[in-house]
Each structure stands twice: as C-alpha cells, then as structure tokens.
Predict the structure of Amino acid permease-associated region.
Amino acid sequence: MSQKGTGLHRELGILDVTAITSGIIIGAGVFIVTGIAAQFAGSLTWLAYAIGAIPVILVGISTIFLNLMHPVEGGESYVYPTRIVSKPLGFLSGWGMWLAVIGPIAITAQAFINYLNALPGTSVVFPATIGAVVVTILFSLINWVGLKTVKIVQNVLFLFMVAGILIYIILALPHMKGTNITMGSPLGFAGVMKATSLLLFSYAGLTLAADLGEEAKNPAKTITWGIILGILIPTLLYVVSAFVSTAVLPWKDFAASEAPYAAVASTFMGPFGVVFIVIVAWAAILSSHNGEQAVAARVFFGLSRDGILGGKTASVNRFGTPTFGLIATSVLAIILIISGTIQLVAEIIVAMFLYNWIITHIAVLMARKKFPELVDKLPGIYRKKGFLCLPVLGLAVSVYLLILQGWKALLYAAVWMIVGYLVYLVGISRNKKEILSRMDRWPES
C-alpha cells in the first residue's frame, strides 16, 4: 500500500518495528561499549544499564504520546519538534538526529570487520577501512530495494541475535561466582553513574520507531508496541547479560578484554565459545547497521519534506525508499570511515540524542496548548494532569545527562548545530512563505 502524496509503503508490523529499533541499539551497544563501562562500574555494570533505562522509558512515554496524536514519517526527530515547539529548534533536532544515526552506521561497519578478523583459526585479515566501506555499500543496496527486503533481513538478524544472547546467558548461569558478584564498583556509585552516561549510547535510537509513522501498518498500535518492546527487550538483555558476565569473569578481566563477551564464553565453552560469540556479534552488529541505514534515510526524508533542503531531496523510488536520504546517509558514513573522523562523531552521538529527547519532552508539555483537538482524542491516561509529571521528570533527567557529556562533546555538538542552523536559514530563505505555510497547516498538510 502506497501512502498518498509520499510514495511511502505501509510495510511494517510490530515485529518489524521492534526488530529495527531494538536491533539498532543492541548491536551498537552490548558488544561495543559494555566492556568500556565495566572499567568504571565494575560488577555493577548491570546497575548502570538499569539506571540508563530510566530516561529511555520516560522519553519512550513522551514519544508514544506524540505518535498517538498523529503518526507521521520523520515524526520524532523533526515533524513533532517543528510543529509543536519551534521551527528552527525542530529542524536542529532532526539535523542532530541524522548525524547521531550516521555515526553508528560508520562505527558498526568497522566493528563488523573487527569481529570478522577476530574469528579464531583464520589467517585472512580484512582491511578495516575498505571492508567497512563495502559493508556500507552492500546494506545501502539492500535498503534501496525497499522496506520489504530490509525487514526480512532485519528480522532474521534480530531473532538470531536475541536467541544467541539468550543461549549465552543460560549456559553462563551455572558458572557464576559469588565473589565476582560482590566485587562492586571501583569508583563507587560515581563510577556507576559515569558508566550510565557511557551506556546511554546503548539505548540511543529506541524512540526512532516514531520516525516510521507512515510506513507502519496501524501506526498507533504498531509504533506504540514497537517502542514498548524496543525498550523492554534490550533493557532485559543488557542488564541480565552484564550481571551474568561479570559474575562469571572478574570485572577487571572482563573490562580488559577487547572482546569481553568472548572472554566470558571461553571460560565455560572453550574455544567454541569465542566462535559462538563472534558469530552472534556479527548478527548483532549487522542488525544495527541495517536498521540505522533504514532509519537515517527516513530522518533525512523528514528533514526534506517541507522543502528546506530542496524539493527533490524528499524523492522516493518505486520501492518506497527515500532515495536522496539513503544516498546522502551512505556517502556521509563512507566519508567518516575513510577520513578517520568516526571517533570525533562518536563524541557527540549521545549529546545529539539527548537534545532530541529534551525537545520531545517539551513538545509533550506544549501539545495541549498548540493542538488541543489532537490531545483530546488521546486515551484518558494521557489527558490527566498528573501525566505531565512524566515529561517534566524526563526533561530534567535528560538535561542533567546532557551536562554529564562534558564540554568536548557539547562543543562538537554545538559546531554541528551551527552548521545546521545555517542550512536552515539558507534553505528557508529560498521560499520562506510557502515553507512556513506548509508547516503551519499541519496536521492537514
């Protein structure tokens, strides 16, 4: 089914949306940053994951609220912020989110090659840069032929990954040691909070389900459950796998390993454990990469639909894929890979997501005044005055976590936002009256 006026196709069910959102973050999180977080939280890394879920749950609730008002493509990153909060601040939300998803595309492409080279018993070493570019191009081609293909690939990778992590957890349970569990954090609770700020990278992207509002079947139900399951499944896998891992292997050994989950698996599965974890990591990382390409193209589509980036940038091919968005996303990701600037972008990924979360909470707080007719149609729980305590709390927590990112991340983020604001000013000046009119007609436009 094609969406009138956009060329987008309603292809996604609950499993598809869950696989995209959960797949994006599990692959980019559990096998990449858990070991780093353990350096600060020790055997309490599981607690850092649990605390990190709190702001995610809060922004998830706010995102569900906005999606139930009016499901729309590019909604969470761009449309809701521009229509409800502020046109320029909303554009910057989408601009920041686009880079925040492109960064992990480059990171996961290189991570896949690293794990490919980590397979025991092989003498072939794949060049990281060239290999990462090939992975990016391959999945761009998969995305080019539409969500029908993307969701099949994503569902297979996601289900294999979840099954693999569950098998790892179950087999590890008998090998847990009480002495490892009670080792605690080397830096106390401050170390746990430092780890929490790092592990936000593992949760970044869960609310991107609301950017698929015009490609989901029955979007009110599908996106809502996609967000709920997209928070629940990764959180449980993160917390339990981190707890079990640092209970089997002392946290110092876990944190010191370049492939910490493989190090744990090798203690009770032998050499096969390393092979097993490497293969599961392949599925996890490629699941993340595939989902990120799909969503980044649609974030760019959302940025383009008002004409600020030029009329043709919102084009969609016969498969329902935002073509210019996919090309721009892939090209920028490849530039990051080749230029070696991935680490710089990694510094600002979480800051960009937190900015979007802040705008999302503000949008919920402003929604009743701006669009009372849409809010009045929401389920009763969302209309109660007490409900607004949740976005207020989410706003406060997100601002606090943004400050924790440090001056370097905030400085880099500010530079990207300044570039985005200049793009906004130039773009809107070309046809200001029509663009502003299109924005003001929402949700009818």
Observations:
- The first helix runs from residue 14 to 29.
- The CA atoms of residues 192 and 372 lie 41 Å apart.
